[in-house]
Amino acid sequence: MTADTTREAAAAADAADPLAAFRSQFVLEETGPIYLDGNSLGRMPTATAAALSAVVAEWGRELIAGWDRGWLALPGAVGDEIAPLLGASPGEVVVSDSTTVNLYKCAVAALDAAPDRRVIVAERGDFPTLGYVLQGIAAARGLELRLVDADRREGLSTDVLEEALGDDVGLCCLSAVDYRSGARLDLAAVAAACRRVGALLLLDASHGAGAIALDLPGAGVDLAVGCSYKYLNGGPGSPAWLYVPNRIQDRLRPPIWGWWGRRDMFAMEPDYDPAPGATRFLAGTAAVLGLTAVRSGVAPLVAAGMAAIEAKTRGLVALLAALVDQRLAPLGARLASPADPTRRGGHLAVSHPHAAAVCAAAADSGLVVADFRRPDLIRLAPVALYTRFVDVVDAVDRLASVLAGFAPGGRAPVGLS
Questions:
Q1: Candidate list 153, 295, 344, 379, residue with the active-site label
Q2: 159-201, pLDDT tens digit by residue?
């Protein structure tokens, strides 16, 4: 996308967009508000309803036989389909449980692999679940949770992180993309810093997977988890994924020894023997309907390819940033994401003193669905497979009308007819 921020230039970019055809693969309301909240919940693919109906019919028809006809393999099979989005190989990704549970499993397994190390390093303002899980682990084991501070706009500096790392650190747990500002972590630099002190790096990639190209093995990331209901379009409450690379699978034992994570589960042996590969991190029975929805959500991403998705994501976010500066800054808004386009993830943050009311007014007026984060952030996420460049231009126009209502003497926005 060029520096031209006119709607005509946006329409030309849409006409040349190699991903334009994917928009028809999602359920859309063309006359409704512009949806810029895919980093909270992705749109539903058109294929999902039919896929779920087929499984429901299979359940009614096959009953228990459905397990032998494919359901048993779903956690690993769908994980293998997600793997290319992460740069991973078959057998390194499985889908199960929630992000929180997977985070716990991976964190404890990493700490158990280095029992003499008594420190966990994390970012103080990271997504709350990370802090809660790590606080619980530290309290239960008598460990130190060493917190570092990230710049609110630019994200976590590798230099700041390195000051907290030492040979007493067993685990460093961070997010690939800052959920507030959208700032990208320098994965290779952070992984190298952890490797120098012998600490394992556990990554939450919930705000990155499916929006930006991630090469977890190439960067040297040791473990990763993520949800499937944001950019992977798996639907509300869909099961999460976890990544354990081949190089460390045999070193790690999950803390939850479940039937599904045992080698030859149907042998019904009394003693636990971990399954090979990332499968050992499975615990309970697979959520077949949820896995089916995740499979439908991931398919368009795999077909499009992450290189093309990242290229369009970067273009959409760059256009959005330019328009924020042009149209919204004079109305009291301020860009709260990194100025450097290469440091941004899939969403842009805008600060405004009335951010909560602005988001509510934009949604209630049927103009734009955005996302508020305390204390003053409006998060805007244009998603490559279903957001057009003209949508970005129109969304900023609509947000400008809302922001104008919060200026002295302003009037409330007019909704869609």
A1: 379
A2: 999 999 999 999 999 999 999 999 999 999 999 999 999 999 9
What gap in Å lies between CA 244 and CA 257, rounded to an integer?
A: 16
Catalytic site residue from 14, 112, 118, 127: 127
Is 127 a residue of the active site?
yes
Give pTM, 2 decimals: 0.96
Residue 149, SS3? coil
CA distance 328 to 362: 14
Burial profile 381-402: b = 16 or more Cβ within 10 angstroms, e = fewer: bbbbbbbbbbbbbbbbebbbbb
CB-CB contact of 371 with 39 (8 Å): yes
- The angle formed by the CA atoms of residues 295, 301 and 244, to the nearest 5 degrees, is 65
Of the residues 117, 230, 262, 312, which is catalytic? 230
To the query of whether residue 230 is one of the catalytic residues in this protein, the response is yes
What's the rounded Cα separation, in Å, for the pair 217 and 311? 21
Is 312 a known active-site residue?
Answer: no
